[in-house]
Design brief:
Helices cover 42% and strands 17% of the residues. The protein contains 12 helices and 12 strands. α6 crosses α12, α8 crosses α9 and α8 crosses α11. Pathway: Cofactor biosynthesis; (R)-pantothenate biosynthesis; (R)-pantoate from 3-methyl-2-oxobutanoate: step 2/2. This is 2-dehydropantoate 2-reductase.
């Protein structure tokens, strides 16, 4: 099987290293020429929670040839129009594109390449791009039973999705789900909470849980996400054998405290990590905020549910993109005050 990883930033570099180490025929595709050159010269280096350097094959999009049997799409959603147009000539009739992007990208990907060639999934680990050829793995994946959750848009499970799972299992545990859209909403909730706050405040995940108001905002962001997800008719799956909708349960002070405890338990091992959206802001790039917190806001409008905390994240991040705000903790004053504090 000829495999491509299209978009080799932080996570794509880590995935490419592990799949290549596992002996799969993998080509890493990225438009950052210095990164591609370093990957070819020195291999893909993974640091922090791993110590790994693996020889890999890397190219720029202009160097693509032939067709690919399986493509892991890991670019930012903001680049999808350009990326999918470039990719299309290099897919054959039975190619599979597995989008591992943030948000809920499957419908827009399928609109270009066809639903019969589109599957999707969520990544349940984190990484930070350090420099050309080097990414940090920000959690110990040896302690995680499931690193990926993947599925078909319509929920059926067949040989195709199992073959995608087999490739990813070279890195670690994979769960094949019949509830992809519910899983997508779970990941959107996760990203909207700690990635949204990290980008808004210019801080690490550890900084969020160390600040009472910032941490409380995550519970309110989750509350909005859970309400909208339910209104759309989707059900978020459990994570680590827990009902993650408890993150958004604000029915009492005890429920709020439980929500805060869940956030702490998840993020305490990710203290040094910061959102990829913040990394984009630091580099002066546009973020995926419209596909993460903004996706919740837009869906909320469709089902008549207000989303003030997610609205604030979107407005702050867009102001940072527009250079009218800095990414700093002072932006916390722009968020509503939680009644539980």
């Amino acid at each position: 099987m000829k495999i491509a990883i299209y978009g080799c930033g932080a996570m794509g570099t880590v995935l490419g290293a592990y799949l290549s180490k596992g002996g799969l025929d993998v080509i890493m595709i990225d438009n950052y020429k210095a990164h591609v050159d370093k990957l070819n010269e020195s291999g893909a280096k993974v640091t922090l929670c791993a110590d790994l350097t693996v020889p890999v094959k890397a190219i720029t999009p202009e160097e693509m040839t032939g067709t690919y049997d399986l493509v892991f799409l890991m670019t930012k959603q903001t680049a999808n129009d350009e990326v999918l147009a470039k990719m299309l000539p290099y897919l054959h009739e039975k190619s599979t594109v597995c989008t591992l992007q943030n948000g809920v990208p499957e419908p827009s990907v399928a609109a270009v390449i066809g639903e019969k060639r589109t599957v999707g999934g969520t990544i349940l680990w984190g990484a930070t791009f350090k420099e050309p050829g080097v990414s940090e793995l920000t959690q110990d994946i040896t302690k995680s039973k499931v690193l990926f959750e993947i599925g078909e848009i319509d929920g059926h499970i067949d040989a195709r999705i199992k073959s995608v799972a087999a490739a990813l299992e070279v890195m670690g545990g994979v769960e094949v789900t019949d509830n992809l859209m519910g899983a997508r909403w779970l990941k959107v909730m996760f990203n909207s909470c700690w990635s949204g706050m990290s980008a808004s405040l210019g801080c690490t995940f550890g900084d969020i849980i160390d600040n009472a108001k910032a941490s409380a905002c995550m519970s309110h962001i989750a509350n909005e996400a859970v309400a909208v997800c339910r209104a759309l008719g989707y059900k978020m799956p459990p994570f680590r054998n827990q009902d993650m909708t408890a993150m958004g349960d604000l029915s009492s002070k005890a429920a709020f405290d439980k929500s805060q405890g869940i956030f702490y338990d998840i993020l305490k091992d990710l203290r040094p990590a910061k959102a990829s959206m913040l990394q984009d802001l630091e580099k002066g790039r546009k973020t995926e905020i419209s596909m993460i917190n903004g996706y919740i806001c837009d869906a909320g409008k469709k089902v008549g549910i207000q989303t003030p905390y997610n609205d604030t994240v979107v407005s702050v991040v867009k102001a940072i993109e527009g250079k009218t705000l800095a990414y700093e903790m002072a932006n916390l004053s722009r968020f509503p005050q939680s009644p539980f504090l």
